[in-house]
Amino acid sequence: MVGATCKASAGFWSALLSLPRAGRDERMLRGLAMQALERVGAAEAADTRPGELSYGMRKRITWARALVAKPGLILLDVNNIYVNASNHGFDPHAYLHGIPRSLVREIHLAGHTLTHIDGREIRIDTHSTHVADEVWALYAAALSRFGPVPTLIEWDADIPALDILCAEAATADRIAEPFRADTA
């Protein structure tokens, strides 16, 4: 898809899934691609090459591709969104609002580490420490947008004592509680 416009790229997954390619089907796929681009607020980018778009708009194109492929489940990694937003300079809340509500079925949380590379502060999604306060705040924003979906805290390295893991889970429950009450 090198050199293709976003409109063509948004339908790429359908082609990859080996859907029929007759002229009528191509029109259907283009229609689905435009609907997906409109749904994620990227319709104005349809005739633009992806390399000419901002990072945030390219992410919207990625969500459009997901919509065209009709996924049944997206695991929303809130720590990863925060880490990438910090490292690449985009707004994590705007990113959350670009994700279609109907796609998120589970949220993942984790800790990250901070390091310096060439004098620049870099966050690395290590799953090896407590969930950061900024990630907890983004988690609350995600719950506000997507509702009280199941949440998993990932701690894959430097695993602490069980009481520390339980405290992290309790924090997630405490933050999620008001959102559960809204749906009761």
Give a short account of the largest sheet: 3 strands, parallel
- Total domain modules: 2
CATH architecture of the largest domain: Alpha-Beta Barrel
CATH superfamily of the largest domain: Divalent-metal-dependent TIM barrel enzymes
Please, could you describe this protein's structure?
There is one protein chain. With 184 residues, the chain is of the alpha/beta class. It has 2 domains: 64 residues, no CATH class; 110 residues, Alpha-Beta Barrel (TIM Barrel), CATH 3.20.20.150. It is 52% helix and 14% strand. The protein has 8 helices and 5 strands; from the N terminus they run H-H-H-H-E-H-H-E-E-E-H-E-H. Helix 3 crosses helix 4. The longest helix is centred in the last third of the chain and has 22 residues. The protein starts with 5 loop residues before the first helix and ends with a helix. The relative contact order is 0.11. About 5% of the residues have low confidence.
Structure in a nutshell:
By secondary structure, the chain is of the alpha/beta class. It is 52% helix and 14% strand. It folds into two domains: 6-69, no CATH class; 74-183, Alpha-Beta Barrel (TIM Barrel), CATH 3.20.20.150.
Keywords:
184 residues, alpha/beta, TIM Barrel, 2 domains, 3-stranded parallel β-sheet, two-stranded antiparallel sheet, 8 helices, 5 strands, 14% strand, globular
Summarize the topology:
Elements: H1 6-10, H2 12-16, H3 23-39, H4 55-69, E1 74-77, H5 78-88, H6 92-97, E2 104-110, E3 113-117, E4 120-124, H7 133-146, E5 151-154, H8 162-183
Parallel strand pairs: 1-2, 2-5
Antiparallel strand pairs: 3-4
Helix pairs in contact: 3-4, 7-8
